[in-house]
Q: What sequence folds into this?
């Protein structure tokens, strides 16, 4: 008998007291077995080798017994596959060869054709073949705003000044840029879902830098178009520092809203309303605290999440590179062992 993954039940607000757990950036730098596999291969190259992608995706599932695998890739992979010049520099992040500075560059931004990424479908099928039936495979993509921020700034940014200036000064060009990025992300997600991804997460990691009015008019409609393209699977919508945007983000066409550590989940759910599950939100910085402190904070997260109509346990953002993998394993065990009783309180 195959059991429906608890993550899918939670997204459908039908989990009862079961509590699924996975971690953003669970596949990656905190694992020695990841560093061993990646040795000598550039980040973007590793994302295009199905054997490597399957292995890296499965590593945290084997080690931590998390309830979901997240496809090992990067939000910049579909842009690179479309032909945008970029590199992912170790210790920095994405770096764009020719950052967008002119309207012409927006007009010339290439499309992504599914035929350009046969390896993505192959990787997803390979993961599904190895993943136990009670665990879910999550596909993902970057949301148009977060992708635009890299293309316009040229790399990671603290204030997104050029991006916000473009959005405010030339909304028509901004909408053209985000419309194109929405199509690229939608294609990337569609290929993953068609190959077997059972849920998706749209990462709008940096949307929290925006005022709600700008988010509502210039960002949300584009993210909504991406979501509409994969409406046949549960969708998770995540950003950092989005306390003021949570309700708007729930309106993009999503079943689950990802919440960072700044807003307790009961309050987040109150802001979002009864029709959405929440995901989160232990502060990743706490992973270096003594175990009893982590355990108490995790219990607080579980109790607050029990007040929402559905809850997927996660961190408030990605696993830090310095995290001790054994702490993550212990955290998964705590969520599984204590979660049901805490939810029933
Ligand atoms: O050499 C390396 O190991 C590079 C580090 C690394 C890794 C492991 C990068 C560079 N990307 C990834 C993988 C990755 N990226 C995953 C894998 C699956 C998992 O979660 O385990 C995912 C989901 C992403 C998505 C991603 N990339 C996001 C959204 C998630 C988030 O953290 O908010 C973002 C913003 C990126 C851009 C990016 N890629 C890499 C870095 C260091 C960054 C962030 C740079 C910045 O601060 O702007």
A:
């Amino acid at each position: 008998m195959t059991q429906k993954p608890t993550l899918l039940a939670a997204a459908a607000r039908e989990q009862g007291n079961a509590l699924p757990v996975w971690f953003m950036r669970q596949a990656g730098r905190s694992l020695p077995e990841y560093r061993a596999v990646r040795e000598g291969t550039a980040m973007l190259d590793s994302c295009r080798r199905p054997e490597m992608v399957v292995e890296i995706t499965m590593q945290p599932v084997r080690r931590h017994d998390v309830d979901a695998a997240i496809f090992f890739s990067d939000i910049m992979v579909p842009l690179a596959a479309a032909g945008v010049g970029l590199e992912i520099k170790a210790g920095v992040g994405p770096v764009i060869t020719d950052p967008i500075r002119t309207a012409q560059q927006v007009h010339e931004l290439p499309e992504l054709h599914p035929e350009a990424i046969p390896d993505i479908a192959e990787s997803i099928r390979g993961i599904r073949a190895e993943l136990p039936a009670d665990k879910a495979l999550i596909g993902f993509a970057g949301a148009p705003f977060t992708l635009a921020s890299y293309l316009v700034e040229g790399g990671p940014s603290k204030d997104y000044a050029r991006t916000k200036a473009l959005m405010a000064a030339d909304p028509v060009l901004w909408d053209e840029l985000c419309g194109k990025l929405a199509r690229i992300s939608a294609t990337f997600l569609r290929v993953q879902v068609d190959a077997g991804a059972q849920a998706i997460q749209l990462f709008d990691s940096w949307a929290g830098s925006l005022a709600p009015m700008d988010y509502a008019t210039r960002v949300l409609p584009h993210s909504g178009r991406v979501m509409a393209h994969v409406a046949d699977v549960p969708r998770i919508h995540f950003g950092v520092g989005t306390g003021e945007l949570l309700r708007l983000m729930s309106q993009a066409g999503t079943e689950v809203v990802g919440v960072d550590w700044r807003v307790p989940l009961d309050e987040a759910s109150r802001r979002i309303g009864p029709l959405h599950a929440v995901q989160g939100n232990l502060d990743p910085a706490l992973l270096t605290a003594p175990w009893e402190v982590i355990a108490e904070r995790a219990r607080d997260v579980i109790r607050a999440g029990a007040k929402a109509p559905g809850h997927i346990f996660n961190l408030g953002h990605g696993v830090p590179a310095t995290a001790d993998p054994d702490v993550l394993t212990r955290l998964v065990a705590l969520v599984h062992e204590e979660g049901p009783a805490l939810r029933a309180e």
